[in-house]
Amino acid sequence: MVCFFIVAAFTIELYWLIFHSSLAARSHFDVVAYLFGIYGQGDAAYFDQVTPLTLGLESINVFFTQWLHVWLLYAILRKRPYRFALQLGVASYVAYSVVLYFWESYLSGWQYMRSTAPLILALYVAVNLPWLLGNLYVAWHAGVRITRRFAG
Questions:
Q1: pLDDT tens figures, 52-67
Q2: CB neighbourhood size of 77 (10 A)
Q3: Each residue of 58-112: pLDDT tens digit?
Q4: What is the 3-state secondary structure (H, E, C) of 21-87?
Q5: Whole-angstrom distance, CA of residue 68 vs CA of residue 94
Q6: pTM value?
Q7: Could you give phi then psi for residue 50, rounded to 5 degrees?
Q8: C-alpha span between 62 and 109 (Å, rounded)
């Protein structure tokens, strides 16, 4: 799962950071920009109405979080004793950032959604679920391991 997050960040998310201001123009000839256009139906802040929040979240994710993911991957592969604490910290804050992203959308009245039709809302949620559910699982797993270590 950590590998998935690293690959996604250094491909799709980095692409978005580089081209976020020109995705709409690129969507006619670029497959990735076209896919962002589809997702833009659920959240135009990731297509043609980029916000400071989306730019900030993605910048932190690509340029900061991935170094933590690489460190976490190293710690897991080398079975370092601090790996569960690192895993709990990183996964918790990434899950928190997804919840913050959802909460901001809700509080703004779904301002950047083209429509609140069930299919559009499902698209919006489904694309983000790997980051939310995956990191909740990783945090839960670390919490279980830490708790077992200090139990009885």
A1: 999 999 999 999 999 9
A2: 9
A3: 999 999 999 999 999 999 999 999 999 999 999 999 999 999 999 999 999 999 9
A4: CCHHHHCCCCHHHHHHHHHCCCCHHHCCCCCHHHHHHHHHHHHHHHHHHHHHHHHHHCCCCCHHHHH
A5: 11
A6: 0.90
A7: -55, 135
A8: 27
